[in-house]
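Now for a specimen:

…
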Amino acid sequence: MDDELGIPRGEEEEILREAAEQSGFHKMPYHPVFYNPNGELPPGFSDDYYAVARVITERILTGQALEDIEGTVALFLFRHYLELALKSVAFNLRWLITENENVLRSEAVKWPEGHKLDVLWEEIRREFPNKMGMKLWQEFDTEFLGKCISEFHSIDPWGERFRYRREKHDHARDRLKALGPSWSDLLVVMEHAHNVLRAMETYLIETYGQNEEWRSEMNSW
């Protein structure tokens, strides 16, 4: 028995051993994490960011996580999801000339670049009604989605605020007050924005597929 701590010698040695192994001075062999470095990422990708952001937000709301610790991660993941989802919708729009005609497969269609949500949204707002018709555009809840994108763009216009301790672009920030997100409202916004973006993306992908089937059939005659 250790006289000072009142811990049996065996337990004390085990505690010290575990502490040593968890320190930065403990040397151990490195085992590669990736067994196929050139392999493809699993499908989903942008939805994965949404899914994890949602789980973290739910954990905060139920008291299983602290917003000061995991909250910024949830905000970053959802903001990044918005960027990737908007790029996907814009990319699928670029493959369509009209609702009934696709861009030829031999032509190069570029993936949208940049991190600014308002630029991506402006392209979609312009091209979707032009190519797919105003009636269809108005059937989606684009008003809600537009407000979501506008708010997140105004909060983080360069995609830096939730990623870096200090932003590369200078902004005047209120250092005395927290950003103060409403996690319950965020959860509702995340779910509905995801539903709208997913519906738009799915419709565009299916439209492209139907056009390709029709073109293949026409070429077979």
